[in-house]
Amino acid sequence: MTDETNKPEAETPAEAAENLAESLAEEPAAQGEAQDAAASGPDIAAIQAENADLRDRLLRAAAEMENTRKRAEREKQDAARYANAGFARDMLEVSDNLRRALATLKEDERESAAGSVKAMVEGVEMTERQLLAIFERHGIREVTPKPGERFDPNHHEAMFEVPGSEHPAGSVVHVLEAGYKIGDRLLRAARVGVAKREDGAQNGGKVDTTA
Predict the structure, then answer these.
(1) Number of Cα atoms under 13 Å in the Cβ half of residue 137
(2) What is the Cα 2 distance to its own chain's centre?
(3) End-to-end CA distance of the chain
(4) Which H/E stretch holds residue 20?
(5) pLDDT at 38 exceeding the cut of 80
(6) What are the phi and psi torsion angles at 152 (to 5°)?
(7) Sorting pLDDT into bands at 50, 70 and 90, what band is 211?
């Protein structure tokens, strides 16, 4: 015998309609809550912009570090290359004296000199060649102009002017002392005499140092 008392009572049409209306009224509220949750979630565009900014700053910092490293390496190389500049400049005087000693002996005097004098001259010449070879090994090279070359104020020092020279005005006529560079830096300017302009009296006889 079936127990009729435990059966749920069937909804009346009025109750069913009321429940349906309540369900339909709750759906927009649930959709609004979902939209609010999405709106309150992470802003993808903002995160991407922040990541791009961080990446740009990281790349800039890396480039700056690389530039700093290269600059430090260049300064280290320059310090090693030019550390002996003062000593080299002093040694140039030794080279000058050797060259002057050889220039005082004329060719005919050398031919007629005794064997011991000839040997001494050859020793001085060998010493000068050896000194120049040492200069070359340490990045020191001679930058001496030849007669007729244009005066260069970046490498030459004009000591006097020579009127009536066969060379063009403003060109080198005599070399008093050789010039030298160490690496890319001028160690000592070549000291020279320069051809004077023919109209020097009108123009003050000045050497053109703007070349």
Answers:
(1) 6
(2) 104
(3) 129
(4) helix 13-39
(5) no
(6) -120, 110
(7) very low
Helix axes 85-103, 115-137, angle to 10 degrees: 150
pLDDT tens sequence across 84-127: 788 888 888 888 888 888 888 787 777 777 888 888 888 888 99
Residues 6 or more apart from 176 whose CB is under 8 A from it? Answer: 159, 191, 192, 193
Calculate Rg over the CA atoms of the chain.
47
DSSP 152: -
DSSP-derived pairing of the beta strands 156-162 and 190-195: parallel
183 confidence band (pLDDT: 50, 70, 90): confident
| 3-state SS, residue 207 | coil
Measured in residues, the chain has a length of 211
Cα gap 184→154, rounded to integer Å: 12
- Strand 156-162: give its sheet, edge to edge: 156-162, 190-195, 172-177
Pairing of strands 140-142, 180-182: antiparallel
